[in-house]
Amino acid sequence: KLRNKMGIVYIGIVLAIMASTMNATGMNLQRYGQRIQIKGTKEEKIWGQRLNGFGVFLSIACGLLDFISYSFAPQSTLAPFGSMTLVVNLIYAPVLHGEKIKALDLISTALVILGVVTCITNGSKVAMELEDTEELLALVSRKICILYGLAITGFIAGSLLYIYSEEQAGNGHLKSVGAFYPLVAGTFASSTALSAKVLGQLIKLKGSIVHIIINILSIVAFAASNMTVNNRGLGNHPPLFIVPIFSTTFLVTNIIGGGVFFNEFSVFTLGQWLGYAVGVSLIISGVLLGVLFKGDELPKKFQQFASGSSRHVRSVSQNTKAK
Questions:
Q1: What would the pLDDT profile of 108-154 be if each residue is shown by its tens digit?
Q2: Which of 116, 92, 90, 113 is nearest to 103 (CA)?
Q3: What is the dihedral of CA 251, 4, 68, 148, to 10 degrees?
């Protein structure tokens, strides 16, 4: 059964924008705090630890807003707003990190905003209402959902293995390695959002306590994994590199997840399909534009830190083996 109440959908949109803003703020504070811990005095390092911790808190808190927002609007409608993190990040980059904003950054941000507006215009205006928990369980246990879950699991495991092996080889400063941090973190983030959507439906339909606990544990595990991987990536690479890839990954996997598990695209007309596809393409193009045309290496000040982190990882590993 479908519900068509745009007033309720707009509440979800506002909450999604707030969540994206909190997420961008949190990631930039993590990066800023970690830089202070490396280069600052003893007092500054303590302050850096607090900033890093507060950044992690904001990133976790944004998940709560996401959880609430998915109770008001379809996942396919809210997913594009995850890319607004890129817009907020553009404000923080020169202020907190001294990074120069180039014309390419402004163009990519404009494409993202245009894409979000296009998605809103053509996205679903109705939210699915399930009758009971049996209908919900039947919906998420279909073969396509299981295959999607296996594909996501395989991607995460392979990516983490690649990151570990490259860091051991001292290649942590390469963009080809650094890109996998936000790719994995974005996938974890969308899995958190999907689990939150399922949890909201279970609570609404008064599902069994066992299913509710399983979903809560899933949310905690996905959110913690997202924070861990993202924090590690921001410790090695600048936000202007990490955030765009994270936003793109979150957007794509969030849209696919909502479409696969909740059949949200089943109500789209042909015009909506075309318009929504154009909007998503604009967002992805804008995000990737600012990443792919900045050279193959990270700035030298980040290369030094990344290389040092990789050497530290190898040193710890070798000491562990020696023991």
A1: 888 888 887 888 777 766 666 677 788 888 888 899 999 999 999 99
A2: 90
A3: -40
